[in-house]
Every structure is written in structure tokens, then in C-alpha cells.
Design brief:
Number of helices: 12
Strand order of the largest sheet: 4-5-6-1-12-11
Strand content: 15-25%
CATH class of the largest domain: Alpha Beta
Largest sheet: 6 strands, mixed
Radius of gyration: 22 Å
Amino acid sequence: MFDRVSADDLMSLVSQRHPPPLQVGAVLILEASNGLNVGSLRTTLKQRISAVPRLRQRLQKVPLGCGRPIWVDVPGFEISDHVSVITPQSETDDDGLLDIAADLVTTPLPEDRALWSATLVPRMTGGRAAVVLVMHHVVGDGLAGLAVLRGLVDGPAPLATAVVPQPHPSRAALATDAWRERIRSLRGAPKAIGRLLAAVDELRPSLAERAQPCSLNKPTGARRGIRTAVVDLHQVRELAHCNGATVNDLVLTAVAGALHQLLSGRGERLDTVVVSVPFAARTRTESGQLGNRSGVIPVRLPTNGEFSDRLTAVSTIMRAAKQHERGASTAVLGPAFRLLARLGVYQYFIDHQPFVHTFVSDLRGPDEPLSLLGCRVLEVVPLSVATGNVTLSFTALSYDKWLVITMIFDPETCSDADRLSSALKSQFAGS
């Protein structure tokens, strides 16, 4: 049996021909950077990735009739192909770091290599340093990204793995394996049909009613900008739990309120915002079991009124959404997107889709501080790129004592991102 991309993984490959690439990542901001250099980073990561096989593999297409693409070891793998350094003449501040991260996450990774990179920014203000990690979404979803992070930071020595590179399989072996997989799929047809019906039930309300037209939806270009809001995680958790809500509910409530403020400043009124929210089909994964196992549910959230009232409403909406099978929506969206791509109209569809205004994902990261090369990780900034006509999106990640919400936007269609950042911070401050 070979390590093939899954049906869920194929969704992330559909858009790879259209900028920006569907890539994700994280910025690790480190304290006390003395002795931190690209050589030591390469040495450390080369040792650590023995526990993360996907980081030394690339995708390989297979002959017709031989199934989905497979992951194969990269011959002559070189860590220097993936780990680099940026050395500006002066120290980099936080805004400059976010500009670097935006450029890196929107630059396509070479397809003939393992689909990841790590870039060291060694001289930051305040005696700090940073490492910007980027990987293609086909490597894994948000939970998989956290597993990769756990595999790369300081910790117990990684377990020994098989000798690499493994030989590439023959066409006959691939074809045989593909037919075995098809037979297994037939045996699992009742379960697959049930998942498909669950997906239809999950998506029907959202697809039946279009999102209200507004300036949040415009065709976007290849560039992106990044802003962040950092809030005290203990206060956020306490507020959410006191209202019978979750941290995710509170993030969604704050985002909806910030978008209301943003659009009001543009002379627009939006009483509800349609947000695409990912739901993982698993609660945790390990560095040896990556890939994508999640779906999305568009939810319609209130944007105006008292924060507490909106939080209660959002909490009720999200509890109802969680009654569906987790991650089921890919049973419909995956085949639909691949069909649109085959027909040559996928790009047109995502540039004009009328169903969602934005994307918001929220991940629970490590509760305890991490370190890399002996340097404490002060902050983890999540990176995720939206494509199509969604001009801005949000990714939240809790780590240690802080919750970081990243706003990533198209600077051509969202020139007032600073106002959005202020609005989001005011939502948390006024909550």
C-alpha cells in the first residue's frame, strides 16, 4: 500500500495553478537570538524532520489508471533547499516581519521538492529573531500543521525511521494497489453515501440563500498583506465560558462585529455576515499522519447589537452546526471543485462565488511555551491564504498565554486593513 493523497487532499490541489497558492504556515517569534544562525537551524531541522516524513517527500503523478498521486522520497534531499535566511541591513520590526511573512506564504513552493520552507529572520527589534514556516495545504490542514510544529521544535530526540530514499514503485504495483483501493471503496459505499447525504444536509441551508453582496467580495490578485490582533487568552476563555460559549464562538463574534464596523466606514450595511468555518474530522494528529481531514460549513452570523447578545446568538448557531458529521462537506465540495477545474471554470467560480463573505479558522495550539534551538518561542502567528473573491480572511491560534488573530487581505481591494485591525481589537476590548 502506497502513501497516496486522499480525496480531501485533492481539494487543495485544484487551485494550485492560480495565484496566490493555497499555502499555510506560522511565524515563530523567538527571544534572545544570540548564536542563532541559518547553519544551526539547518542542522537542527535536518535532525528533527526524521520524525516528519512528509517534509522529505514530494508529490508524484502516476500513470493513467494507477490511482491518485503518491508521496515519494526526494532523491538527494538537501535541507539547504528548504531552510534559508533573510538578512536586511537594519533590524526588522513587527510590521516588517509580517510583510516578509506575506511575501513568503504567497510565493509558490517548487513542486519538484518537498512542499515546505523555513526562513530565518535573525535580527529583529528587541533582541528577538523569527522563523517563518510555510507549507502547501496538501501537506496537511491546521491540525496537521500543529503536528509539524511539534515535530520541529525542541523536544525528545526523534525516533529512527526507515532508510530513505525508498525506491519508487513500479507501474504494475501502482495499478494493483489502485484496484485494491477501488474495491475497498466499493465495500465502503454505504458509509460514503451516508457521508454524502450528511454533506448535502450540512450545506443545503447555505447554498439555498446567497450572501448579501458587499465589498468583502471582489476578485483578488496575487499579493497579500497581514495584520494581527493579540489578546490575553485567559481573559478570552473566562469571558467565553461565563457566557456558555467557546473561544471559537467569541472569535467569530468579534470578527463579525469588526466587519460591521469596517463596512459602516465604507458606507455599507451588513446585518449578517456569512463565514466559512472549518470543522476537523479529527481532534488531534501526529507528525507521521498528516494530510487533510476537514470540511467547511458556511454559517450566517449577526454583526450588530450588544456583544453579549451576539455572542449568545453565535454560540447557539455553532452548537447547531456541530450536530452535523464533522468534515462531511468535502464529500460534496471536493468532487464539485474538481469537476469545475476539469471544465476550466474553477477560477471563474471562485472569483464570483456568491455564498460566503470570509473565512475564519480557530486552532488551539500548545498551552505550554515552546523553544527552538534553545530560544523560547514568544509568539506564534498563524498564516493561511484565501483565494478567489474573498478579499480578507482570519486565522486564530492560541499559544501559551495569548490568542493571536491574523487578518490576511488583498491590499488592492482592502486598503483600509488598519481600520479593520483597530475594529477587531476594539471588539475584544469592549467585550
